Amino acid sequence: MITANMKVSDIVKQLPKAADIFRKNRIDFCCGGDISLSEAIHEKSAPIETLLEEINQLDNESSDGLGLDVQYLDNRSLINYIQNKYHKPLEEEFRNLMPYITKVAKVHGERHPHLIEMKTLVMKLRDELIEHTKDEDDTVFPLIIEYSDNPTEELRAQLKPHIDELESEHDGAGDMLKRLREITNDFTPPLDACGTYRVVYQRLAMLERETFQRCTP
């Protein structure tokens, strides 16, 4: 449970996606984050009750579905779960994360050149994963549902090249994530890293975990 007495920087450490809420409300979670949330509230931010409700909702969402055993879902339910659990949040996460990555690369890239490569890799990863999920939503999932209802060899033959291509794309995304882990020293920020720098590394680690979880049968 996040409270008004917690430091802004500590809230972001516990819930990295809270940075999006703070940015929207013009609350400094980076170098000015060493004060409590109640102290950080100002005339341009939402009331503290509203902020706490939004932030604690993030905390609830982070634990949603942990007890779900997907092996017992039918194909329609599994597809719906994948779309709601991974596809929609993935697009939103890249949209929210890229401004932080761009800022960190711009501000610290000269001193830490790997951040430039990090930005390039994440942009490429974003493009590939979003295209991948769109292909699943538009083509593969409808074919799977159709095959479930009518398992013919013709439909099976239509599905196979799509499945093969998706597996190849999984491998490509995995390679990019491994490279990101390598150049970021296992997503470990420097000791003097600012709050935004730390948020980027935390959320890249979360992205890696969720992507591998999604790609693991």
Task: Please specify the SSE layout and strand pairing.
Blueprint: H1 8-14, H2 18-24, H3 37-40, H4 48-62, H5 75-108, H6 114-149, H7 153-183, H8 195-215
Low-confidence stretches: none
- Principal-axis shape equals globular
Number of β-strand runs: 0
Cα-to-Cα separation, first versus last residue? 33 Å
Helix segment tally = 8
Structure notes:
There is one protein chain. The protein is mainly α and 217 residues long. The protein has helices at residues 8-14, 18-24, 37-40, 48-62, 75-108, 114-149, 153-183, 195-215. The longest helix has 36 residues, at 114-149. The radius of gyration is 20 Å and the shape is globular. Its main location: cytoplasm. Residues 84-197 form the Hemerythrin-like domain.
Short description:
The protein is mainly alpha-helical and 217 residues long. The protein has helices spanning 8-14, 18-24, 37-40, 48-62, 75-108, 114-149, 153-183, 195-215. The mean pLDDT is 88.
Summarize this structure as a short list of keywords or feature phrases:
mainly alpha; iron; ScdA-like_N_sf; 0% strand; 217 residues; 8 helices
